[in-house]
Design goal:
Helix 1 crosses helix 13 (about 260-285) and helix 10 (about 210-225) runs antiparallel to helix 13 (about 260-285). This protein has helices at about 1-35, 55-60, 60-95, 100-110, 115-125, 130-140, 155-180, 185-190, 195-205, 210-225, 230-235, 245-255, 260-285. The longest helix has about 35 residues, at about 1-35. Helices cover about 75% and strands about 0% of the residues. The chain has 13 helices and no strands. The two termini are about 30 Å apart. It is flat, with a radius of gyration of 24 Å. The chain has a single domain (about 60-285), classed as MetI-like fold (Orthogonal Bundle), CATH 1.10.3720. The protein is mainly alpha-helical.
Amino acid sequence: MRASRASMTGLAYLAPAALLMALFTYYPAIVTVFHSLFSTAKANRPSRFIALDNYRYMLDDPIFWKAMHNNILFAIGTIPTSVAIALVMALWVNKKMAGRSFLRMAYFTPTILPMVAVANIWIFLYAPQIGPFSRAASLFGFGHVNFLGSQATALPALMVVGIWKEAGFFMIFYLAALQNIPPNLSDAAAIEGASRWYFFRRVVFPLMLPTTMFILVNAIVNAFRMVDQVIVMTQGGPDNATALLLYYIYQTSFSYWDTSYAAALSVVLLMILAILAFTQFGLMEKRVHYR
């Protein structure tokens, strides 16, 4: 009797969260898959069932493959760098030092700034001729570089903004993980004569693997859902050099009004994120030690 009451109490606590999850996560995903199998309704033509035609068209869509290529490069360029910088910053501000609270606030500040405001700040920094980066490039003999107007530099410029925005957010999780490590472990390592690098490699980092896995999953999702800074800073240009996958979905749905094809693109994006997440858990789960 007590077990059944405990089960009912647990279900009652879970019901609101499960309802919200089903209503705002699973239901939209199912509707998106269903909508991707139909054509977009026009003024003089109703929507009709076309099966997998949207997906077949996707295979021959050069802009889709360009956006996919850009997004992969963006993920490769931002995820390892932002995670590594976050770890270094967490190790740094976890030490006892003067001004530690100020440093933590300074590192975390980019995270709480709205991306639209951040994008406008970086537009000025990247501005040709008047921007600080362009002036610095001219001092070294490169001339006034148009970072956001060149195909060679536009995507790396967005990567820098993404790293600057994400590193402070990931630092908070690493800092929390560091503060949960028992201090007696470092005392024991010091008694044994272990170096700081050996202690970090064999004790600290293995204990932070659950946090690292959580951060990597979030970093991958953030890299593939980046859209606001693209809209503000480059609008996918020049010549689709910065068109990321979610921006292409946004453009297809709200600029071209092809909602069924945008739904098919969304399904592919969801599948990519799901595969990456499951692969990540499969590769790292055996090496993660939970306490």
